[in-house]
Amino acid sequence: MANDHSEMEHSHEHADGHTRVHTHEHTKTVINRMNRVIGHMEAVRNMVEDGRDCSEVLVQIAAVKSAINNIGKLILEDHIRHCVVDAVESGDEQCLADLEDAINKFIK
Fold first, then answer.
1. In terms of Cα–Cα distance, which of 9, 5, 71, 8 is closest to 38?
2. For 36-77, how does the pLDDT look when each residue is reduced to its tens digit (9 = 90+)?
3. Which conformational region is residue 88 in: left (phi greater than 0), alpha (psi within -120 to 50 degrees), or beta?
4. Is residue 42 situated within a structural domain?
5. Residue ranges making up the domain that contains 29
6. For the segment 92-102, what is each residue's pLDDT rounded down to a tens digit?
7. CA dist 28 → 19, 67, 88, 97 (Å)
8. Position 52 in a domain
9. 102: in domain
10. From CA 17, how far away is CA 2, in angstroms rounded?
């Protein structure tokens, strides 16, 4: 997969009520990978519709799950490096509790 690290700016409102602009390194990569996963899921749906072997379908679903997990890791990396660092530097400690909650939901 391409290693596209073009940066994009995003603004987020934090628990302290302030909106901050963050630079996310992996936004374009995340979007490209999401588009590939969407295409992959459509292919898996076609496999099911065509009556393909269940084992083949399960292998493809596992590949999609892995791709989605990797997308989540990139988003988490950007979030920690930019959003969380900026929030903590500005005194927003709630972001750490929010991060813990997000990680717990992500790894379920």
1. 71
2. 999 999 999 999 999 999 999 999 999 999 999 999 999 999
3. alpha
4. yes
5. 21-106
6. 889 999 999 99
7. 22, 15, 26, 27
8. yes
9. yes
10. 37
Domain tally, the chain: 1
Specify the amino acid at residue 107: I
Decide if 6 is inside a domain: no
Q: What number of other Cβ atoms are within 10 A of residue 69's Cβ? A: 11
DSSP assignments along 9-71, one per residue: EEEEE-TTS-EEEEEETTHHHHHHHHHHHHHHHHHHHHHHHTT--HHHHHHHHHHHHHHHHHH
Q: pTM for this one?
A: 0.75
φ and ψ at residue 39, rounded to 5 degrees: -65, -40
Q: What is the CATH number of the domain that holds 59?
A: 1.20.58.1000
Give me the phi and psi of 20, to 5 degrees please: -125, 150
